[in-house]
Amino acid sequence: MAVPVAPGRVLPTLNEDGTHRWLRPKPAPGAWLTRRTVVAWLLIFIYVAIPHVFIGGKPTILLDLQRREFTFFGTTFLPTDTLLLMLLAISVVIAIFLASALAGRVWCGWACPQTVYMEFVYRPLERLFEGGPRGSTQIDRAGTWFHPRRFAKHVTYLVISSFLAHTFLAYFVGWDQVVHWVFGSPSAHPVGFTIVTITTIAMMLDFVYFREQTCMVACPYGRWQSALLDNDSLIVAYDYNRGEPRGLGKDRTGKGDCVDCEACVITCPTGIDIRNGLQMECIHCTQCMDACDAVMRKVGRPEGLIRYTSRAALAGKGKHFLRPRTVLYPIAFAIVFGGFVWQLTFKDAADVTLLGAAGAPFVVQQDGKVTNQLRIRIANRSGAEHAYTVEVTGADDVSVIAPMSPLSVRPGHTETMPVFVTLPRDEFDEGVRTVTVRVSDGASYAADFPYRLTGPIRESHDDDRKDRRNGPRE
After folding, report:
1. Which of 218, 242, 258 is the last residue of a domain?
2. Which of 176, 194, 218 is the last residue of a domain?
3. Could you write out the DSSP letters of every residue in 105-162?
4. pLDDT tens figures, 18-43
């Protein structure tokens, strides 16, 4: 049975018969590649360095899922910080929308980890071990994955992927803990070992096999760009009016500036032809810009046949920086992020939560008094250790027993204090009594919290209800 063949290439990474088309782009040295190299290695350095940098005694970033504490740049967010985390997340989303409206897919081409590691770590190593695109093609034709050079490349990939996976784990448990686990038995930390193993395998599959397909098939950004970009957004584009009609030869009479050398296609990391217009697969990496500029210099034509521009500018409509999305996005960002900063700046130095007893709501003592147990959870949000005390007011003859008062809480930590409140039985109205619980550290924090104590319903009320049910007595 004949294998069906597509009338053309459906995806740059698929041949017409559906087999995998391996892309091995040829680097195009130039000013834009130099800029991207500097940015890429700066981002790699930041990623590796963050777990080792502390701000105010706290990790720069630590996502402690077990304790449900999230530290960003020295500030710890707790599960009670729902509003803060929501404002921060919305601010990030709006910032992405604004960046896309202004600079197109600048994230994809310059800062996305997939692009940074693929183009500046893994592919350079592939060229080093296999001898460039020509050497890789020769190994492909040999039909074996166990070629010595390719095997050495995969071993190096595995070492780098394992290191990056351990660094990823450090964002959740801290680097000191990761080092301790590395020199211990995996059975002592099965969760951490599993995370590192899965992350390493995922990175190997990504950078060995899926590669640019992750951008074209898995990542949704390419499909979002139709909504995130407009005609005035900055994109990497081919100047059709200047380049067409394309053709070879020194005689350019009646021809455009494009000499149809396909240097832009050879260097493209996603295998597209930028001359076909804005495409989902284009990540705006500027490789085609460097390649085309080099050719233009050789043929004596002006640079910029492929350049950063907009569809409106290419159509001769000029540049329009001020437009609805470039006005509304900054306003929305200023409001949301401003609210985040305001909430963060004026947030209390402690978070206090009043909880009831885990068992019976109250206990009646032998002398007839009623005791309620409270659990006061205190999260110290300040930068110093504080000792918290508890007072209860709002009722006569109230008795408070707090065995752990004052309660010392370290900065960024949460502790729970048990408190026993005893009231005479007559203080309860319909089985309820509201009191005021005051929590204070004697310095930077003091707050009052209303709390409803529960108790038995007074017998006189029971008798009244019985009288109403039975009618008047004779």
Report:
1. 218
2. 218
3. SHHHHHT-HHHHHIIIIIHHHHHHHHTHHHHHHHHHHHT-S--HHHHHHHHHHHHHHH
4. 788 889 999 999 999 999 999 999 99
